Amino acid sequence: MKKIITVLAAAIATVTVFSGCVKHPAEYEIYTNIPSELYELKLEGFKVAQTVIGNVSAVEEGGAAENPSAYKSMGITYYDIMSTEATIVVSEDFTDEEAAKARCTAFIESVKAKLLEIDKSLSVSVETSAVSSFNSAAAGAKIEIDEIAYNVFNSALEMYEFTEYYYNPAVYYSVEAYGFKSDSTRPETAAQLPSAEKIEKFKQLSTHFGEVKTYEEEGKFYVEKPQATVEIDGVEYSMKIDLGGIGKGYAVDVVNAMMDESGFKYGNFDFGSSSIACKSHYKNGAYNLGFRNPRPSFFDESYMSLKVKNECISTSGDDVQYYIIDGVRYCHVIDPTTGKPVNNGIMSATVIGGTAAAGDALTTALMAMGKDKALNFIESKLQDVKVAFTYENK
To answer: How confident is the model at residue 26 (pLDDT cuts 50, 70, 90)?
Structure first.
């Protein structure tokens, strides 16, 4: 199923422009390394609590087309790619309408083909995918995989090390136990939550992700599963992973490169609203990016905005997939140090710049780190990308 789109200036799902401030009864904190002159606060309920020193700079002026009135945009949303939506939008000079339409259509179809190829490799819902083959294999097995999976496995291992293990795609069983897999049952009462013993064992198993090994031999690609297992209620579990987060970022990076190679300077690609690549906008040069309020009083409310152009944007939050039991919020982002949903006050994290794959891993890791660790990490390791996270005092 697909949807044809006509795209205007704000052509990414997370962009929302507000003319004034909106009052909120609660007050939330923003921590960022973005200088105050580069953004605009949109909601009175949010305040900047700390600005971390970094090397980030403003978006350069210009970038719009010389003859913007000749440009039109074409786009399509594809549904159920890696269990979410993917929207590609490109803008082209339509002076020669027939040629421009053919060029845009051909490119959009090439994006679809590439996304289906990535989905076939990485999706846990595709039984024949490389990730599914890894998950169903016995502990210690060596599995032949395709080049896409090989590249994403290596990126995941690199980000696992870089984030000091706070990004960990091997928390699969915890995500499942808390009801955030498509085929798992979501708890409705505290009694239905997974036991502390089960979660502890799942956590122990996930700590072995760094033991995953990848190989390239004679033009073929392989991954070796760790020997580690745990036993729960007489059932033996070997490691399972989900590369969906970093996989979406990888897809964004691939499509971003495809736009460059095909000469599309204007447009954007949005994968699930959590991973986005922006080129320039043919009318405005830059896009106006709104940071979505993780505690909205109405749909698509932004707490701050800034200009973006020729950058990738990644966001994680506890407000997309979650439930509340006895006043406690449980979300799909798992803290690998506890094996439980994050619950440290960080509500959302956004990274602008660098690759989308790295950004997706970083935002997940920042949410798990907690405020103090996240601030130290941003200051020491993320000086060259724009970062912001929201925090709720509890």
So the answer is: low
Question: Do residues 281 and 266 make contact, with C-beta atoms less than 8 angstroms apart?
Answer: yes
Residues of the chain above pLDDT 70, percent: 93
pLDDT digits (tens, 9 = 90+) for 334-382: 999 999 999 999 999 999 999 999 999 999 999 999 999 999 999 999 9
115, 81 Cβ separation under 8 angstroms = yes
Q: Which residue has the tokens 């204007």?
A: 266
> The tokens 């405020």 sit on which residue?
371
- Is the pLDDT reported for residue 14 higher than 90? no
**What is the pTM assigned to this prediction?**
0.92
By the 8 A CB rule, do 258 and 279 touch? no
Q: CB of 259 within 8 A of CB of 267?
A: yes
Pairing label, strands 46-51, 28-32: parallel
